[in-house]
């Protein structure tokens, strides 16, 4: 099982620790470092900054939001950074949800997410292969554009710049079982948001036909500390925000996932509290058991014991949301 460092996205401003943490992860032998985006900082610019200050660690987006860019634009970002970094890019993509897609990007959330994802990946693949001009006549993506409001003058094109790698890895952030199953067919890997090594049945069927070499790269908060309950608080804060606030009361993919993992009543309670403005109560309503099983928190010996269960399953890459160098170092030592 390889290790990655997940830095996420910025809060109010850039973190001064991100580049030093990435450099430390590289020194410790971590395979990859990952950035993200929501409705603030983008995923590619910080990754480019990190690329200029490292030399071997792989550079991943977990995830770049599909609604933020046309698929050809995303492919341009990926092939450009791949050249500049010497072939280190791993492109993680995600649809996000209706709240963000329609509220932030001002675009309709696709009525058929699986089709929209499949078409998007197809366009990116065509750009990276550069075998012919990009041509797609899909439900959500049309190259050249075929819509009734177009000029009719669009021309199929292929990139001027020759991509460094036609097989640049594409991973998808998918949550629903059908979406995960499709991911095994059209992508090189999967980026689970929550992964519990104790519940392989949640995605067992969806991963049943994953090809050899398929990447499974979940994120997990990693924190070496003496007090487990205190160490779980940041995990619960994250879960309270995602389950309570990253979606609508009637459609929240994160809450639905928590429900499928055996915590349906708790997920709906967190949603209700958060939407009522009782955010602190929503965080405290996150069960310690759920926060604990999707993270690695506690003394070194406890993390060592729990790490074994992560190694036994299909996980190929553990992406650590590690807040400090000590946690990074201990995880590297335990995984050696």
From TrEMBL:
<feature type="domain" description="Luciferase-like">
    <location>
        <begin position="17"/>
        <end position="316"/>
    </location>
</feature>
<dbReference type="InterPro" id="IPR011251">
    <property type="entry name" value="Luciferase-like_dom"/>
</dbReference>
<keyword id="KW-0560">Oxidoreductase</keyword>
<dbReference type="GO" id="GO:0016705">
    <property type="term" value="F:oxidoreductase activity, acting on paired donors, with incorporation or reduction of molecular oxygen"/>
</dbReference>
<protein>
    <submittedName>
        <fullName>FMN-dependent monooxygenase</fullName>
    </submittedName>
</protein>
<dbReference type="InterPro" id="IPR050564">
    <property type="entry name" value="F420-G6PD/mer"/>
</dbReference>
<keyword id="KW-0503">Monooxygenase</keyword>
<dbReference type="Pfam" id="PF00296">
    <property type="entry name" value="Bac_luciferase"/>
</dbReference>
<dbReference type="InterPro" id="IPR036661">
    <property type="entry name" value="Luciferase-like_sf"/>
</dbReference>
<dbReference type="GO" id="GO:0004497">
    <property type="term" value="F:monooxygenase activity"/>
</dbReference>
<dbReference type="InterPro" id="IPR019951">
    <property type="entry name" value="F420_OxRdatse_Rv3520c_pred"/>
</dbReference>
């Amino acid at each position: 099982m390889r290790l990655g460092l997940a830095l996420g996205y910025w809060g109010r401003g850039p973190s001064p620790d991100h580049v030093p943490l990435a450099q430390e992860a590289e020194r410790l032998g971590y395979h990859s470092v990952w950035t993200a985006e929501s409705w603030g900082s983008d995923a590619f610019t910080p990754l480019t900054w990190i690329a200029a200050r490292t030399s071997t660690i792989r550079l991943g987006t977990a995830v770049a939001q599909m609604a933020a860019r046309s698929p050809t634009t995303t492919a341009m970002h990926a092939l450009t950074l791949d050249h500049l970094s010497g072939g280190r890019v791993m492109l993680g993509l995600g649809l996000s949800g209706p709240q963000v897609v329609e509220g932030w990007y001002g675009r309709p959330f696709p009525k058929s997410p699986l089709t929209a994802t499949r078409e998007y990946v197809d366009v990116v693949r065509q750009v990276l292969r550069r075998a012919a001009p990009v041509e797609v006549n899909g439900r959500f993506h049309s190259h050249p554009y075929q819509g009734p409001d177009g000029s009719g003058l669009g021309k199929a094109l292929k990139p001027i710049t020759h991509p460094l790698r036609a097989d640049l890895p594409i991973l998808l952030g998918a949550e629903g079982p059908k979406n995960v199953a499709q991911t095994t067919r059209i992508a090189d890997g999967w980026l689970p948001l929550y992964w519990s090594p104790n519940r392989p049945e949640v995605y067992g069927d969806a991963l049943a036909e994953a090809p050899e070499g398929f990447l499974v790269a979940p994120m997990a908060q990693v924190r070496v500390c003496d007090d487990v309950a205190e160490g779980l608080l940041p995990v619960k804060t994250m879960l309270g925000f995602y389950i309570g606030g990253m979606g609508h009361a009637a459609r929240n993919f994160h809450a639905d996932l928590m429900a499928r993992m055996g915590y349906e009543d708790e997920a709906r309670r967190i949603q209700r509290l958060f939407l009522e403005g009782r955010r602190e109560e929503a965080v405290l309503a996150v069960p310690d058991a759920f926060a604990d099983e999707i993270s690695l928190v506690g003394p070194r010996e406890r993390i060592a014991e729990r790490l074994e269960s992560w190694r036994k399953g299909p996980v190929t890459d553990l992406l650590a949301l590690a807040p400090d160098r000590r946690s990074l170092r201990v995880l590297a030592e335990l995984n050696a």
